[in-house]
Specification:
four-stranded mixed sheet; two-stranded antiparallel ribbon; 3 helices; alpha+beta
Length: 134
Amino acid sequence: MSEFDVIARYFSSLGAGRRVELSVGDDAAALSVPPDSELIVSTDSSVLGTHFTDDTFSEHVGYKAVASAASDLAAMGAEPLAMTLGLTMPSVDDLWLHGLSQGLAQACRHYALPLVGGDTTRGPLALSVTVMGF
């Protein structure tokens, strides 16, 4: 399965938001930020063997990755705007990706953080979530 197939199947439905002009599927996201607002940005990574184990449910991996990053916005008193996901994985595992996307979807809704872009690549399993707020 290609990177674009993975994005279309598991992540394309997570990009809607009231301040999102362009989202997943375009080369870059376009977001509307209120005038006189400062953009707040934070990135958190989750790495297999450090932040989760092989037997951690992928739903939990996805949810926790977003929750960890979202807590940084809350600490700054920022209103959530959007997030991106960098996903590195050794191979495409449909069952694992389905669970991950379900956990991400739950967290996206809970924290009001639409997924507007990111990157997928092959390598040791790791996620990097970048959140933006104002």
